[in-house]
Amino acid sequence: MRIVVTRRIPEAALVELRAAGKVWMPEEDRALEPGELRKAVAGADAIVSMLHDRIDASVAEAAGPGLRVVANVAVGYDNIDVPALTGRGVLVTNTPGVLTDATADLAFGLLLALTRRIAEGDRLLRARQPWSFHLGFMLGTGLQAKTLGIVGPGQIGQAMAKRAEAFGMHVVYSGRSDPKEELLRQADVVSLHCPLTAETRHLIDAAALKLMKPSAILINTTRGPVVDESALADALLAREIAGAALDVFEREPAVEPRLLDLDNVVLTPHLGSATVETRTQMALLAAENITAVLAGKEPPNPVHR
Ligand code: GLV
Ligand code: GLV
């Protein structure tokens, strides 16, 4: 069995994969270019893919008829053309569950960093600026009794709600089929936890931002294209909303340049699941999905039934 791993993964998962077949992994730790990816997968029975790999019909074709499974090391799988693969009899799996807490922790951390001006305060000190404690110095806003609006009440959205409730926040939800307008009007904090699909692309556009309170903030830890990043920069500059904290970007790894100059914006480089524990569990789960399929068994996490 030929197993292609598109980018370095934790050793524990490689051990599992090596027991199931011959593993190929690129030497350099960087995203493969589309051409390199197609070349690498030739003759593969299984592919372990990353969220930055576009896996479509051309990749399946390049792999050839032996391809049986693509295991994405992520809960999101918007990078995979699932119908194109299933149409060829290829199973697609993801890694739900194991990154729920890590991602909710980061989303809540971003919320605190923004409302309590943690990143901004850190920048101030590093700039060697003079400062002194006084009662009006660098005031943020409290979370207690504020309303958190969760867009996408899945596992991560619910974990975010649990954290918010522990901080004394009131939580409202909006799911796939609910209208978003009421939530956007009510919420002091809007946190995005829906997957990226055709329906959620630019869910937060200029019109949605206009519905939000001028005192409200936006948190995005799901996928960049759920937000129209240029419209967000416009809204922040026009003070239509009070701030934003983003872990994901519309054109990753690029960031809308106007956001980089704003003090009421906190930015992190797609770190939602980035803990040693979680990344190891994600890679192990991907390996488990691969070994199940190669052994002729049902994988634990197919994205389609
Ligand atoms: C990370 O962004 C994931 O989808 O797991
Ligand atoms: C703040 O530092 C306080 O002691 O209240």
UniProtKB/TrEMBL annotation:
Keywords: NAD, Oxidoreductase. The keyword NAD applies. PROSITE patterns: D_2_HYDROXYACID_DH_2 (PS00670), D_2_HYDROXYACID_DH_3 (PS00671). Residues 3-303 form the D-isomer specific 2-hydroxyacid dehydrogenase catalytic domain. The keyword Oxidoreductase applies. InterPro entries: D-isomer_2-hydroxyacid_DH, D-isomer_2_OHA_DH_cat_dom, D-isomer_DH_CS, D-isomer_DH_NAD-bd, NAD(P)-bd_dom_sf. Gene3D superfamilies: NAD(P)-binding Rossmann-like Domain. One of its GO terms (molecular function) is glyoxylate reductase (NADPH) activity. It comes from the Bacteria. Transmembrane segments: none annotated. Pfam families: 2-Hacid_dh, 2-Hacid_dh_C. GO terms for cellular component: cytosol. Residues 108-272 form the D-isomer specific 2-hydroxyacid dehydrogenase NAD-binding domain. Belongs to the D-isomer specific 2-hydroxyacid dehydrogenase family. This is D-glycerate dehydrogenase. The lineage of its organism: Bacteria, Bacillati, Actinomycetota, Actinomycetes, Pseudonocardiales.
